[in-house]
Amino acid sequence: xxxxxxxxxxxxxxxxxxxxxxxxxxxxxxxxxxxxxxxxxxxxxxxxxxxxxxxxxxxxxxxxxxxxxxxxxxxxxxxxxxxxxxxxxxxxxxxxxxxxxxxxxxxxxxxxxxxxxxxxxxxxxxxxxxxxxxxxxxxxxxxxxxxxxxx
Length: 151
What we know:
The protein has 151 residues and is an all-alpha fold. The protein has a single domain (31-144), classed as AhpD-like. The chain is built from nine helices and no strands.
């Protein structure tokens, strides 16, 4: 099928934009295992197949078990995640699903924010938010990329 008309190459056509996204990523969590779980979850929500494939590979290299990798697609129904991971995944959903993003400041979102604040003290909560923001930006960039079926 080849490249899709109207698609772009962020790295090739906007190296400054690409570097900015990379910088945003570096502002995220230093816990690489948790960061990959967050990135996988957001990529599932955004249906970014490129990012799902990429982050599944990174997760495996980090030693994350295949059942936990697969469970990120439906983490609420899984017992494979601890309290801290569940708080991170819940905040990821809140900040990724556009229907809930508009209500992220509402009282109904307070338990998600509180659980995340309890699990991620100090600067860690900001790092978690930056991880979610960065992967959402990457998902959108990669969905916009010029990609070819041939590879």
